[in-house]
C-alpha cells in the first residue's frame, strides 16, 4: 500500500462501513493527526470511515449523526482512541443495540484512572502504541507502533539538493541541529538550548534551530531561553524559527544533520521517526516510546531524561565524529522504512479489524 499512490478508498457497502474511527475532538491533536494519516490509507483495503468533527476534508468520512441510522445487525468495528469514544461506542452497542466490536488504542505512558480502566475492560480488543505503554494496561494488548509516511518523510537526495533546500528555507551553510515541537519545559527545550550553547562554542560550523511555538502559558519560558542565548551573544547560532505548516515540516527535517528530542515526558513521540526517515540521526531521552524507536549507537544515541550534561556530551560526541554521523544517517532511514512505515501500522490494525468482524459475539 504505497502511501503516495493516488488510490481511491474502497466504496462503502449499502449497509454502511465495516469500520468506524471516531474523532470526538474539534481541535487538532495527536490523536486527530493519527486518524487523518491512517484512515485514507486503510480505506484502500477495507471499508473504513472516520466520524466526528475536526478532520481534514481528505479523510474518508461519515457524519456522526448517520452512525445512529446505520443498520443494527451489521457487524462493525468501532475503533476508539479516547475515553469519550469508548463511552459512545458502549452507548451505541448497549442502548441502540448496534452490533459493534469495540476496539481501543492507548498511547498513554502512565497508569490509567479507574474510569478509564472500567471503559477499557469493556473493549473487545486493545492496542498499545508501545510495549512500555502496554505495561500500564490491566488487559491483554497488542503492541502496534505508530508509523509514518516514508515517501513524504525522505532524504533530500544529494548535497546539491540539500543546499538548494536550505537556501529556499533561509537556513545557513554548515551543520544544522534541530529540535522540533512545542516550546515548553515538558518538551525539554531548555535542555536543547543549554546543550547547543556548549556545542556552538566548540564547533564553529554548527547552528541550532528550534522549530515550533510556545502557547500563552509557556511564553515566559521561551523568553527566558531567548534571553539566555542573547546573553551569550549567540542569537545568530541558535535560532527560533517559529511554527510552519504541517505539510512543510518534512523539508525542515531534510535540512538537518542531527535531530535532538530532549523531552522530559512523552506519550509516544513521532518526531524521532520523522527525522530518521529523512536520514537524520537522533539524540533522544529515554521517555515515551523512544527506547523502542531508536537503536542506541546505530541510529543515534539515548540519554536519561532531564540530564543536560549527558545530552551535552552526546551532542559533542556526535558533532566530533562526522563518520559516525554518516553511518547513523544511513542506518536511520533503513530502520524506519523496514520497521515503522505507516503501511505497516495500517496493515496491523486492519488484521485486528478483520478478526473482530469475523466474530459475532460481543461483550
TrEMBL record:
<dbReference type="Pfam" id="PF13692">
    <property type="entry name" value="Glyco_trans_1_4"/>
</dbReference>
<dbReference type="GO" id="GO:0016757">
    <property type="term" value="F:glycosyltransferase activity"/>
</dbReference>
<protein>
    <submittedName>
        <fullName>GDP-mannose-dependent alpha-(1-6)-phosphatidylinositol monomannoside mannosyltransferase</fullName>
        <ecNumber>2.4.1.57</ecNumber>
    </submittedName>
</protein>
<keyword id="KW-0328">Glycosyltransferase</keyword>
<keyword id="KW-0808">Transferase</keyword>
<comment type="similarity">
    <text>Belongs to the glycosyltransferase group 1 family. Glycosyltransferase 4 subfamily.</text>
</comment>
Amino acid at each position: 500500500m504505497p502511501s503516495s499512490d493516488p488510490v481511491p478508498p474502497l466504496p462503502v457497502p449499502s449497509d454502511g462501513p465495516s469500520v468506524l474511527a471516531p474523532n470526538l475532538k474539534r481541535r487538532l491533536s495527536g490523536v486527530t493527526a493519527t486518524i487523518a494519516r491512517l484512515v485514507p490509507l486503510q480505506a484502500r483495503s477495507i471499508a473504513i470511515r472516520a466520524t466526528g468533527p475536526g478532520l481534514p476534508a481528505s479523510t474518508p468520512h461519515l457524519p456522526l449523526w448517520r452512525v445512529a441510522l446505520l443498520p443494527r445487525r451489521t457487524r462493525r468495528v468501532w475503533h476508539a482512541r479516547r475515553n469519550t469514544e469508548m463511552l459512545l461506542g458502549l452507548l451505541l452497542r448497549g442502548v441502540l443495540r448496534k452490533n459493534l466490536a469495540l476496539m481501543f488504542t492507548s498511547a498513554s505512558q502512565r497508569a490509567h484512572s479507574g474510569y478509564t480502566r472500567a471503559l477499557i475492560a469493556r473493549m473487545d480488543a486493545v492496542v498499545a502504541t508501545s510495549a512500555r505503554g502496554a505495561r500500564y494496561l490491566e488487559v491483554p494488548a497488542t503492541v502496534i507502533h505508530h508509523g509514518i509516511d516514508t515517501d513524504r518523510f525522505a532524504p533530500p537526495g544529494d548535497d546539491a539538493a540539500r543546499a538548494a533546500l536550505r537556501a529556499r528555507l533561509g537556513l545557513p551553510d554548515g551543520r544544522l541541529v534541530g529540535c522540533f515541537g512545542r516550546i515548553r519545559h515538558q518538551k525539554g527545550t531548555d535542555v536543547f538550548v543549554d546543550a547547543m550553547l556548549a556545542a556552538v562554542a566548540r564547533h564553529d560550523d554548527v547552528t541550532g534551530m528550534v522549530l515550533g511555538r510556545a502557547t500563552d502559558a509557556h511564553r515566559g519560558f521561551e523568553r527566558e531561553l531567548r534571553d539566555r542565548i542573547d546573553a551569550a551573544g549567540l542569537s545568530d547560532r541558535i535560532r527560533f524559527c517559529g511554527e510552519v505548516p504541517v505539510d512543510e515540516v518534512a523539508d525542515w527535517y531534510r535540512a538537518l544533520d542531527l535531530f535532538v528530542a530532549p523531552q522530559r515526558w512523552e506519550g509516544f513521540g513521532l518526531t524521532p521517526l520523522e527525522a530518521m526517515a529523512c536520514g537524520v540521526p537522533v539524540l533522544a531521552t529515554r521517555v515515551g516510546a523512544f527506547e523502542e524507536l531508536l537503536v542506541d549507537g546505530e541510529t543515534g544515541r539515548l540519554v536519561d531524561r532531564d540530564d543536560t550534561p549527558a545530552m551535552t556530551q552526546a551532542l559533542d560526541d556526535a558533532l566530533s565524529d562526522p563518520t559516525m554521523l554518516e553511518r547513523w544517517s544511513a542506518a536511520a532511514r533503513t530502520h524506519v522504512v523496514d520497521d515503522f512505515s505507516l503501511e505497516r501500522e495500517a496493515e496491523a490494525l486492519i488484521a485486528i479489524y478483520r478478526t473482530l468482524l469475523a466474530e459475532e459475539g460481543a461483550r
